[in-house]
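Objective 1.3, modelling of assemblies. Example input:
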Amino acid sequence: MDLAALEEIRQLKYRYLRCVDLKRWDEIAEVFTADASAEYGTHAVRGQLSLHGRDEIVGYLRDNLGPEITTVHRCGQPEITINGDKATGTWSFEDTVIAMTYRVWIRGAAFYEDSYERGADGRWRISHTGYRRIYETLSSFDDTPSLRFLDTMWTATASSGEAGAAEKTG
Amino acid sequence: MDLAALEEIRQLKYRYLRCVDLKRWDEIAEVFTADASAEYGTHAVRGQLSLHGRDEIVGYLRDNLGPEITTVHRCGQPEITINGDKATGTWSFEDTVIAMTYRVWIRGAAFYEDSYERGADGRWRISHTGYRRIYETLSSFDDTPSLRFLDTMWTATASSGEAGAAEKTG
Amino acid sequence: MDLAALEEIRQLKYRYLRCVDLKRWDEIAEVFTADASAEYGTHAVRGQLSLHGRDEIVGYLRDNLGPEITTVHRCGQPEITINGDKATGTWSFEDTVIAMTYRVWIRGAAFYEDSYERGADGRWRISHTGYRRIYETLSSFDDTPSLRFLDTMWTATASSGEAGAAEKTG
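Predicted structure (tokens):
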């Protein structure tokens, strides 16, 4: 069991998701192989989405996850199998997406099925990432009239039932 | 510190929970010792539940988690202690159970207290699993009139306030 | 890569959060260095909070997280870097705080930025912990009239719309 490689792959996955949630688009390219593919199964956007190549994946994330969209990607429970310079990994996953402008939550769970490759430089990268949804929901801030955002990283807050921007100063 | 055994036990736990959420009842038996016991502290069903033996545990899961029930079991924060061919583990845990027919969410958190054993075949298995609830709630879809299921793995969706099955095509 | 030290630091972090959620204030002091600092960015209390020294941190937790407050701290996705007897770690984090008396939920996500030190006794401790919020919300039980607490570890339950204490017996 190559425990160091397992740790490298875990940290690779965590770096990828952190770069998504912190919108670090310049940093994120490095986690993918040049010919990486991604299948994001979020029905909130337009059904199953297939992206091909590092540039297309990073471009998609950059174009669709601007400051009006807050994301929290939480994965864990890695079952990683290494075979030489290739590896596969299954992960449990929950995500929260907040679209402040539209005043909606998108929340769900899934299982990731990823592939990884170790390059000539000895670094592991994601060669494929995709997931199967267990469920995904959409609901409006309007369902919870008392809702207040006490803090937000990306936007002035949009509270239910009152002017929210004043909350931003916390 | 036997790091390989720690990794094996983590992957054992993750496989167990993945088999639950994906309803892989034929695969799940292998994660338990023949005389394994389980204490599931979910009050949604009938208070504390004690199950004895691999067959009773798997039978309970199969009988109670049919396609009308969607589950998401998320555990992490493992504190595992190994003592020869036995081990114990504490895990933080959150679960989401969606009963589409009854249009309810059951959500909560707990700490697992597990025991594990390494068999003559060198494989670790769960000999006991149980948890203490921090909290568990039940609430209806009716509280959130805007709720829509954009995707579900197991059932046609049941949205609030409109015919949900049409959403299934996403 | 010092895999044993990585595991020790992970278990340290998990022990810390478990002691918070289980209110084990006598046990928790041991996870901090004597001069540890903490920056808890929860706006629900009073904006950014800076604590200095193990005693002040433990005192703050003990004074503010009594039995009327239920907490669930879930962290994962550790990116830990070790440099001799010092280390840094970034973690993804979600928390749920339930204030039964006030009938509110406080929920949010953040990234922890921690520092760790290995003492003369060979044990790792937290020398600094702090986080940057992605978002934090506050909402009332009153938004979800059907809400029932099926189980709670710390308090008699406070349900929406009915006398909740009767639920405590499960």
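The interface with chain C takes residues 1, 3, 6, 41-44, 47-48, 74, 76-79, 90, 92, 94, 104, 106, 108-109, 111, 132-140, 142-144 of chain B (CB under 8 Å).
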